[in-house]
Amino acid sequence: MKNKFYITTPIYYVNDQPHIGHAYTTVIADVLARYYRQKLGDDNVYFLTGTDEHGVKVAESAAKQKITPQKFTDNISQQFKDAWQKLDIKYNDFIRTTEDRHQKIVVNILNQLKQTKTPQGNDVLYEADYQGLYCVGCEKFITEAELVDGQCPDHKRKPEKLVEKNWFFRLGDFLPAIKKAIEADQLIIYPPGRKKEVLGLINKQNMPDFSISRPVKSVAWGIDLPWDKEQKVYVWVDALSNYITALGYPDKELYQKFWPADIQLLALDILKFHALYWPAILMVLDIPLPKGLYIHGFFKINGQKMSKSLGNVVSPNDLVKQYGSEVTKYLILSQFSFGSESDIKINDFPAKYNADLVNGLGNLINRLTNMIEQYLDGDIGLTKKDLEKSLNISKFLSNINQEIEELNFKLALLKIWNIISTVNEEIDKNKPWELAKNNDQQKLKKLLQDWTKYLYNIAVSLQPFMPQTAEHILKILTAKQIKKPVKPLFPRIN
């Protein structure tokens, strides 16, 4: 079905609270979901997010708090839901890997993997001993070469030396087909540099198979391997399956309608799992691959890597408390291009807020509605139908829509704010207050109508980004009598 859109965020690991990195990915998904709902209708868009709730880290964190892993995950998962509510994120479903609906389908998937052969006629799954260095923070085995001063570079902790019996997925037998799909853009990997990176991984000699299980003695908190109760399902196989378990694979109407996913958003650190492991699993299940993986880079905060030790982890809740949900989304998305390494300049937020929202959009709304009220008694002489006919004035909307569809959110917002600046400049240049003084009513009304049409277009273009703000502006412009807002939309921050 062409006229559908299915977008996913990664499901977020519940060993920690929501931070701005989680918020960035989820806000992008929300913008795209809102945009495509306008284009395709609500029933043809599905937006999935959720939480990944099994594994060693979760069990350790729960033990530190002296509560059960389930209680711990219930608490953190709810924090994610609360954060998204505060940010006005409108997802269709929130999947949790501890839910029965997810776990039952994961068991079904595992049984299929166990019973299937690779294209070369080998068993997809096999049991073997594994010896290596395991980083609990990464939830994966790492090599000596990856260590810095004997520690994992990401988690600053020494990995554990493990020798254990695992079940493995025979990845190597699927790499030629995965490579072919990526090269032909049947599986789009964006930005292009990440596609090159994945193909480089595939071209490496002796790409290892991956573990789909861990012994119960190592990982007590997880789904039982259906044919071996001494093993738990490895957290990544469990987590990756959420994109189809949430749709009710293999039978449910949602799955039939929405799979394959159109856009799967993820961060750079989980690229390998999504670009290699996930397609291989889908190939065994004879399920179409997702259409595209879209990867954003790592975040810095005011030029420094975001980390607990530096005390610079930013909570989206704190930003919403200070700026509100609409402004928070604008400030996050307008700072950098999708896919690039991202420096979130929190210290610049107040100045940007005052410049773009107070002096820019807020000023335009106030001065235009004030002039319409003062010079035309609030009657602009345009019906709602007239305003709707003005949509895409100077191909403005189609240009913005193209940027959104190409995930150029910063550029889309820049183009909207360029129009805001242009209209403000036109007002200064044409001096409507002098036209009113000279009683040039015809020219005055024509100018005010033109600027109103532009503001209407601006509001419509902002609907995916700032839906409440857009709705407020549209209500003002389509009222029987246009009045200047009693309170400014964006109060100045000193």
From TrEMBL:
Superkingdom per UniProt: Bacteria
Please tell me whether the keyword ATP-binding is annotated for this protein: yes
**Which residue intervals define the domain Methionyl/Leucyl tRNA synthetase in the entry?**
6-156, 157-368
Instruction: Offer one example of a GO biological process linked to this entry.
Output: methionyl-tRNA aminoacylation
Q: What keywords is this UniProt entry annotated with?
A: Aminoacyl-tRNA synthetase, ATP-binding, Ligase, Nucleotide-binding, Protein biosynthesis
Indicate yes or no for the key word Ligase. Answer: yes
Q: What is its EC number?
A: 6.1.1.10
Which top EC class is named for this enzyme in its record?
A: ligase
Q: What GO molecular-function term can you cite, just one?
A: ATP binding
Q: Which PANTHER family match?
A: METHIONINE--TRNA LIGASE, MITOCHONDRIAL (PTHR43326:SF1), METHIONYL-TRNA SYNTHETASE (PTHR43326)
Family, as annotated: Belongs to the class-I aminoacyl-tRNA synthetase family.
Listed name of the protein: methionine--tRNA ligase
Source organism of this protein record: Candidatus Komeilibacteria bacterium CG11_big_fil_rev_8_21_14_0_20_36_20
